[in-house]
Amino acid sequence: MRNQDSGNATGSQVQSVDRAINVLELLARNGESGITEIAGELGVHKSTASRLLSVLESHGLVEQLGERGKYAIGFGIVRLAGAATGRMDIAKLGRQTCQSLAEELGETVNIAIADDGVAINISQARGAAAITTQNWTGQRTPLHATSSGKVLLAYMGEPDRKRVLNHDLEPYTPRTTVDAEELDHELERVAEDGYAACFEEFELGMHAVAVPIHGPGGEVVAAMSASGPSYRLSKQRIRQIVRPMSEAAQELSAQLGYFTS
Questions:
Q1: CA angle 242-248-249, nearest 5°?
Q2: 2 Cα distance to chain centroid
Q3: What is the pLDDT of residue 68?
Q4: Which pLDDT value is given to residue 92?
Q5: Is residue 68 domain-shared with residue 101, that is, in the same domain?
Q6: Is residue 146 part of a domain?
Q7: Tens-place pLDDT, residues 137-195
Q8: Does residue 99 sit in the same domain as residue 119?
Q9: Domain containing 23: what range?
Q10: 122 CB burial (10 A radius; 0-12, 13-18, 19+)
Q11: What DSSP letter does each residue of 96-157 carry, written as one string?
Protein backbone atom coordinates (compact mmCIF):
# COMPACT_ATOMS: atom_id res chain seq x y z
CA MET A 1 0.00 0.00 0.00
CA ARG A 2 2.87 2.38 0.79
CA ASN A 3 4.29 2.01 -2.72
CA GLN A 4 0.87 2.62 -4.22
CA ASP A 5 0.36 5.71 -2.06
CA SER A 6 3.80 6.98 -3.08
CA GLY A 7 2.96 6.43 -6.73
CA ASN A 8 -0.35 8.26 -6.35
CA ALA A 9 1.41 11.20 -4.66
CA THR A 10 4.00 11.41 -7.42
CA GLY A 11 1.30 11.25 -10.08
CA SER A 12 -0.59 14.07 -8.35
CA GLN A 13 2.55 16.21 -8.20
CA VAL A 14 3.26 15.67 -11.89
CA GLN A 15 -0.33 16.60 -12.69
CA SER A 16 0.01 19.80 -10.66
CA VAL A 17 3.19 20.73 -12.52
CA ASP A 18 1.49 20.02 -15.83
CA ARG A 19 -1.47 22.21 -14.86
CA ALA A 20 0.84 25.03 -13.72
CA ILE A 21 2.60 24.95 -17.09
CA ASN A 22 -0.78 25.03 -18.82
CA VAL A 23 -1.69 28.12 -16.79
CA LEU A 24 1.47 29.90 -17.91
CA GLU A 25 0.89 28.94 -21.53
CA LEU A 26 -2.72 30.13 -21.29
CA LEU A 27 -1.70 33.51 -19.88
CA ALA A 28 1.07 33.86 -22.47
CA ARG A 29 -1.49 33.25 -25.19
CA ASN A 30 -4.36 35.37 -23.82
CA GLY A 31 -2.46 38.14 -22.08
CA GLU A 32 -4.73 38.00 -19.03
CA SER A 33 -7.43 35.69 -17.67
CA GLY A 34 -9.64 35.33 -14.60
CA ILE A 35 -9.88 32.30 -12.30
CA THR A 36 -13.18 31.16 -13.83
CA GLU A 37 -11.75 31.24 -17.34
CA ILE A 38 -8.56 29.46 -16.28
CA ALA A 39 -10.50 26.77 -14.41
CA GLY A 40 -12.67 26.22 -17.47
CA GLU A 41 -9.66 25.91 -19.77
CA LEU A 42 -8.00 23.40 -17.44
CA GLY A 43 -11.17 21.50 -16.67
CA VAL A 44 -10.71 21.87 -12.91
CA HIS A 45 -12.65 23.40 -10.03
CA LYS A 46 -12.11 27.11 -9.32
CA SER A 47 -10.52 26.28 -5.96
CA THR A 48 -7.89 24.17 -7.74
CA ALA A 49 -7.18 26.95 -10.22
CA SER A 50 -6.94 29.43 -7.34
CA ARG A 51 -4.35 27.28 -5.53
CA LEU A 52 -2.26 26.96 -8.70
CA LEU A 53 -2.33 30.71 -9.26
CA SER A 54 -1.44 31.35 -5.63
CA VAL A 55 1.69 29.18 -5.88
CA LEU A 56 2.73 30.73 -9.20
CA GLU A 57 2.16 34.22 -7.81
CA SER A 58 4.33 33.47 -4.74
CA HIS A 59 7.23 32.80 -7.12
CA GLY A 60 6.56 35.91 -9.21
CA LEU A 61 5.60 33.86 -12.26
CA VAL A 62 2.11 35.38 -12.45
CA GLU A 63 0.67 38.60 -11.03
CA GLN A 64 -2.83 39.82 -10.26
CA LEU A 65 -3.92 42.90 -12.17
CA GLY A 66 -5.30 45.45 -9.74
CA GLU A 67 -8.76 44.87 -8.34
CA ARG A 68 -10.12 43.12 -11.43
CA GLY A 69 -9.13 39.67 -10.23
CA LYS A 70 -7.46 38.78 -13.51
CA TYR A 71 -3.96 37.36 -13.81
CA ALA A 72 -1.07 37.91 -16.22
CA ILE A 73 2.46 36.61 -16.68
CA GLY A 74 4.79 37.99 -13.98
CA PHE A 75 8.34 39.31 -14.22
CA GLY A 76 9.66 36.12 -12.66
CA ILE A 77 9.34 34.63 -16.14
CA VAL A 78 11.78 37.26 -17.41
CA ARG A 79 14.25 36.20 -14.73
CA LEU A 80 14.03 32.56 -15.78
CA ALA A 81 14.28 33.43 -19.47
CA GLY A 82 17.26 35.67 -18.75
CA ALA A 83 19.11 32.81 -17.08
CA ALA A 84 18.73 30.77 -20.26
CA THR A 85 19.62 33.48 -22.76
CA GLY A 86 22.53 34.59 -20.57
CA ARG A 87 24.30 31.35 -21.39
CA MET A 88 24.23 32.09 -25.08
CA ASP A 89 27.46 33.01 -26.82
CA ILE A 90 28.13 36.73 -26.32
CA ALA A 91 30.33 36.81 -29.40
CA LYS A 92 27.56 35.40 -31.57
CA LEU A 93 24.91 37.70 -30.16
CA GLY A 94 27.19 40.72 -30.32
CA ARG A 95 28.33 40.29 -33.90
CA GLN A 96 25.46 42.25 -35.44
CA THR A 97 25.56 44.88 -32.69
CA CYS A 98 29.27 45.40 -33.33
CA GLN A 99 28.73 45.71 -37.07
CA SER A 100 25.85 48.18 -36.73
CA LEU A 101 27.80 50.33 -34.27
CA ALA A 102 30.95 50.24 -36.42
CA GLU A 103 28.93 51.41 -39.42
CA GLU A 104 27.37 54.21 -37.35
CA LEU A 105 30.64 55.43 -35.83
CA GLY A 106 32.98 54.61 -38.70
CA GLU A 107 35.49 53.17 -36.21
CA THR A 108 36.62 49.71 -35.13
CA VAL A 109 34.33 48.15 -32.51
CA ASN A 110 35.34 45.26 -30.27
CA ILE A 111 33.78 43.15 -27.53
CA ALA A 112 36.12 41.84 -24.85
CA ILE A 113 35.81 39.64 -21.78
CA ALA A 114 38.08 39.23 -18.77
CA ASP A 115 40.09 36.02 -18.52
CA ASP A 116 42.90 35.20 -16.13
CA GLY A 117 44.05 38.78 -15.61
CA VAL A 118 43.78 39.97 -19.22
CA ALA A 119 41.09 41.08 -21.66
CA ILE A 120 40.34 38.82 -24.62
CA ASN A 121 38.67 40.28 -27.69
CA ILE A 122 35.91 37.94 -28.85
CA SER A 123 34.24 39.97 -31.59
CA GLN A 124 35.28 42.78 -33.95
CA ALA A 125 33.80 44.92 -36.71
CA ARG A 126 35.50 47.69 -38.68
CA GLY A 127 33.80 50.89 -39.76
CA ALA A 128 34.34 52.65 -43.05
CA ALA A 129 36.82 55.14 -41.58
CA ALA A 130 38.96 52.53 -39.79
CA ILE A 131 42.58 52.87 -40.85
CA THR A 132 43.91 49.57 -39.52
CA THR A 133 43.26 46.09 -40.86
CA GLN A 134 44.51 44.35 -37.72
CA ASN A 135 42.12 41.71 -36.41
CA TRP A 136 42.05 41.80 -32.61
CA THR A 137 39.69 38.82 -32.29
CA GLY A 138 41.27 36.28 -29.97
CA GLN A 139 44.03 38.69 -28.93
CA ARG A 140 44.89 39.13 -25.24
CA THR A 141 45.28 42.75 -24.15
CA PRO A 142 46.18 44.28 -20.77
CA LEU A 143 43.40 45.26 -18.41
CA HIS A 144 45.14 48.39 -17.10
CA ALA A 145 46.08 49.92 -20.47
CA THR A 146 42.92 49.50 -22.58
CA SER A 147 39.45 51.01 -22.37
CA SER A 148 37.76 47.58 -22.35
CA GLY A 149 40.18 46.39 -19.68
CA LYS A 150 39.44 49.38 -17.47
CA VAL A 151 35.69 48.73 -17.73
CA LEU A 152 36.20 45.08 -16.82
CA LEU A 153 38.46 46.06 -13.92
CA ALA A 154 36.09 48.75 -12.65
CA TYR A 155 33.19 46.31 -12.31
CA MET A 156 35.30 43.34 -11.20
CA GLY A 157 35.03 41.94 -7.68
CA GLU A 158 37.44 43.65 -5.29
CA PRO A 159 39.68 40.59 -4.67
CA ASP A 160 40.17 40.02 -8.41
CA ARG A 161 40.80 43.71 -9.05
CA LYS A 162 43.38 43.87 -6.26
CA ARG A 163 45.21 40.88 -7.70
CA VAL A 164 45.64 42.79 -10.97
CA LEU A 165 46.64 46.06 -9.31
CA ASN A 166 49.13 44.36 -7.01
CA HIS A 167 51.17 43.14 -9.98
CA ASP A 168 53.72 45.35 -11.69
CA LEU A 169 51.78 47.29 -14.33
CA GLU A 170 53.67 47.35 -17.62
CA PRO A 171 54.16 50.74 -19.32
CA TYR A 172 53.15 50.09 -22.93
CA THR A 173 53.62 53.78 -23.79
CA PRO A 174 54.75 56.85 -21.81
CA ARG A 175 51.03 57.53 -21.20
CA THR A 176 50.21 54.19 -19.56
CA THR A 177 49.08 54.51 -15.94
CA VAL A 178 51.33 52.21 -13.89
CA ASP A 179 50.64 53.60 -10.42
CA ALA A 180 48.13 51.24 -8.77
CA GLU A 181 46.60 53.88 -6.50
CA GLU A 182 46.13 56.32 -9.36
CA LEU A 183 44.56 53.61 -11.51
CA ASP A 184 42.26 52.56 -8.68
CA HIS A 185 40.94 56.14 -8.40
CA GLU A 186 40.37 56.18 -12.16
CA LEU A 187 38.43 52.92 -11.96
CA GLU A 188 36.13 54.48 -9.36
CA ARG A 189 35.32 57.23 -11.86
CA VAL A 190 34.74 54.63 -14.58
CA ALA A 191 32.14 52.88 -12.42
CA GLU A 192 30.46 56.23 -11.69
CA ASP A 193 30.51 57.49 -15.29
CA GLY A 194 29.64 54.17 -16.95
CA TYR A 195 32.48 54.28 -19.46
CA ALA A 196 36.28 54.23 -19.70
CA ALA A 197 38.61 56.00 -22.10
CA CYS A 198 42.24 55.44 -23.07
CA PHE A 199 44.39 58.08 -24.74
CA GLU A 200 47.50 56.53 -26.33
CA GLU A 201 47.94 54.24 -23.30
CA PHE A 202 48.30 50.99 -25.26
CA GLU A 203 49.40 52.32 -28.66
CA LEU A 204 50.71 55.75 -29.50
CA GLY A 205 48.37 57.63 -31.79
CA MET A 206 45.32 55.53 -30.81
CA HIS A 207 42.39 56.47 -28.59
CA ALA A 208 39.57 54.23 -27.38
CA VAL A 209 36.41 54.28 -25.27
CA ALA A 210 34.47 51.35 -23.80
CA VAL A 211 31.16 50.71 -22.04
CA PRO A 212 29.95 47.73 -19.98
CA ILE A 213 27.73 44.85 -21.15
CA HIS A 214 25.59 43.30 -18.43
CA GLY A 215 24.51 39.70 -17.93
CA PRO A 216 21.07 38.57 -16.70
CA GLY A 217 21.94 39.13 -13.04
CA GLY A 218 23.23 42.65 -13.65
CA GLU A 219 26.89 41.64 -13.49
CA VAL A 220 29.27 43.05 -16.11
CA VAL A 221 30.18 40.16 -18.39
CA ALA A 222 31.96 42.02 -21.19
CA ALA A 223 32.98 45.44 -22.50
CA MET A 224 32.27 47.03 -25.86
CA SER A 225 34.89 49.45 -27.20
CA ALA A 226 35.38 51.78 -30.13
CA SER A 227 38.92 52.72 -31.14
CA GLY A 228 40.47 55.00 -33.71
CA PRO A 229 43.31 57.42 -34.42
CA SER A 230 43.79 60.20 -31.90
CA TYR A 231 43.31 62.93 -34.51
CA ARG A 232 39.80 61.65 -35.25
CA LEU A 233 38.72 60.10 -31.96
CA SER A 234 39.34 63.21 -29.88
CA LYS A 235 38.28 63.62 -26.25
CA GLN A 236 35.33 65.71 -27.41
CA ARG A 237 34.21 63.08 -29.92
CA ILE A 238 34.57 60.34 -27.33
CA ARG A 239 32.11 62.19 -25.10
CA GLN A 240 29.74 62.41 -28.06
CA ILE A 241 29.80 58.70 -28.92
CA VAL A 242 29.40 57.39 -25.38
CA ARG A 243 25.63 57.65 -25.66
CA PRO A 244 25.16 55.57 -28.85
CA MET A 245 27.69 53.07 -27.53
CA SER A 246 25.81 52.76 -24.23
CA GLU A 247 22.53 52.29 -26.09
CA ALA A 248 24.07 49.52 -28.20
CA ALA A 249 25.49 47.88 -25.08
CA GLN A 250 22.08 48.07 -23.38
CA GLU A 251 20.49 46.43 -26.39
CA LEU A 252 23.00 43.58 -26.26
CA SER A 253 22.58 43.31 -22.49
CA ALA A 254 18.83 42.91 -22.99
CA GLN A 255 19.47 40.09 -25.45
CA LEU A 256 21.53 38.43 -22.73
CA GLY A 257 18.62 38.73 -20.31
CA TYR A 258 19.41 41.98 -18.47
CA PHE A 259 16.66 44.58 -18.24
CA THR A 260 16.91 47.92 -16.45
CA SER A 261 13.94 49.05 -14.38
A1: 85
A2: 49
A3: 61
A4: 82
A5: no
A6: yes
A7: 778 899 999 999 999 999 999 899 999 999 899 999 999 999 999 999 999 999 999 99
A8: yes
A9: 2-74
A10: buried
A11: HHHHHHHHHHSSEEEEEEEETTEEEEEEEE--TT-------TT-EEESSSSHHHHHHHHTS-
